[in-house]
Amino acid sequence: MNYCPNCSAELKSYQIEGVERLKCSTAQCSFVHWNNPVPVVMALVQYNEQYIVAHNVVWPEGIYSFITGYVDEHELPDQAVLREVKEELGLEATLGRFLGHYMFKEKNQLIIAYEVIANGSLKLNHELSDVLYLSFDGLSQYNFGPLYITRQVLKEWMRINVSP
User: Fold this and answer.
1) pLDDT tens-digit map of 19-42
2) Whole-prediction pTM value?
3) Do 81 and 120 lie in a common domain?
C-alpha cells in the first residue's frame, strides 16, 4: 500500500504506539494502515471414523493439511468453518470443539481452528487435488512437514483427546 485510500496522498512510515505503521502524510487526514490480520478458519475433519487431510492444488507434492478458508464478510468463524468443509469437501458438518487461535505471521492471518464431524458423499472442489484418510493413530503420527500451524493444532487436539 503506497497511497492513502481516503485522500490519495502518499503513505509514510511512522512510529505509532511503538510499532512502525504506514500513515497518511497529510496533516488533514488521520488514516493509519493498521495491517490487522485476516481471519482464516481451519477444520480438523472427522469423517466415517477417520480424519481427512487434504492436498491443495497449489502446494508442493506430498504436502497435506486440514481444511482452511477465509471468513467472509458478516460471517462468524463457526459458520465459516462449516461452510468451508461444505465448499471444499462437499460434506455437511457439525461443529466440534474449538482448538485455538494461532498467528500465521508470514501471511498476516489469524487461524481459528475447530474440530468438525462431517458426513455425506465426499466431492472435492477445484481447490483440492487429493485427500488422505487417517486413523486416530495415523493422524497423531502424521508428518505435516513445514506446516507448523497444522502441527500446533494437532498437538492441541491430541492434548484434549489423550489427556489423563
Assistant:
1) 999 999 999 999 999 999 999 999
2) 0.88
3) yes
